[in-house]
Design a protein that fits this description.
By secondary structure, the chain is α/β, with parallel strands linked by helices. The protein has helices at about 15-25, 50-55, 60-75, 90-95, 105-115, 125-130, 135-140, 150-165, 170-185, 200-205, 215-235; strands spanning about 5-10, 40, 80, 120-125, 145, 190-195, 215. About 45% of the residues are buried.
Length: about 240
């Protein structure tokens, strides 16, 4: 048990990291402090903006990500989670540089969709995540069609909603992102996947009704981490 240590590569943004840590606690059945998973987090937000990097308007975050990853490996993390969907664009480079295995957030999310299937899934994510196709490929393998936001919806609702959360304006972000969620449902989405770490806290801040049909990849990643810990703790 002493060799088990979850590492969280975070700071993208800091709220997303805290949200993942909170959900790891929530997803771990425990009767005492000692039954919870040991976790170390690199929650350093001085990382180049992922969306701007992929749009070609800013520097790559990879050097900062590799630095954070090295710190997690240095302290002995046995498994590493990335507390940002878009940062998985650099997953292969990070996995190659890490002694500890990295869990992929899209794998964890597809497991949740397998347990809660839907014919049409609305995917709320950054341009970079949408373009990468990790979620769409996994959903298609489960027989689910992916509905993506329209360009105008990204410009009017997603991008300003995401950056409102980064400024600490959760209610404003929730109002904008809730409009996007409603538009996807109106076009036929039976389930929503909130594949940007700013989205679940924003929708929760406004008590959005769309949360009831949503899969939160952050929670799915927390569940995968908790399963790893429980197999070690109780095995």
């Amino acid at each position: 048990m002493s060799s088990f240590l979850l590492g969280v590569l975070g700071g993208m943004g800091p709220l997303a990291t805290v949200d993942l840590l909170q959900k790891i606690i929530e997803e771990t059945p425990a009767q005492s402090d000692q039954q919870h998973a040991p976790v170390v987090a690199w929650n350093v937000p001085q990382i180049a903006d992922r969306q701007r990097a992929l749009a070609g308007t800013g520097p790559s975050p990879l050097p900062d990500l590799l630095h954070g990853l090295a710190q997690l490996n240095r302290v002995g993390a046995s498994h590493i989670l990335i507390a940002c969907n878009t940062a998985h664009h650099w997953y292969d480079q990070l996995a190659a540089a890490s002694a500890a295995p990295l869990l992929h957030i899209a794998d964890a999310t597809s497991e949740s969709l397998r347990l809660h299937p839907a014919g049409r899934v609305g995917l709320i994510a950054t341009h970079g995540t949408l373009d990468a196709g990790w979620f769409q490929q996994r959903f298609a393998a489960l027989g689910s069609e992916t509905l993506s936001p329209l360009p105008r919806e990204m410009d009017d609702w997603f991008v300003p909603g995401c950056y409102a959360v980064k400024r600490g304006e959760l209610r404003r972000g929730g109002e904008l992102l809730g409009q996007l969620a409603g538009a996807l449902v109106a076009r036929g989405a039976e389930r929503l996947v909130l594949a940007c770490t700013e989205v679940p806290p924003a929708l929760a801040a406004v008590g959005s009704p769309w949360l009831s049909i949503s899969i939160d990849p952050t929670r799915a990643l927390a569940q995968a981490a908790a399963r790893l810990w429980l197999s070690r703790r109780d095995g």
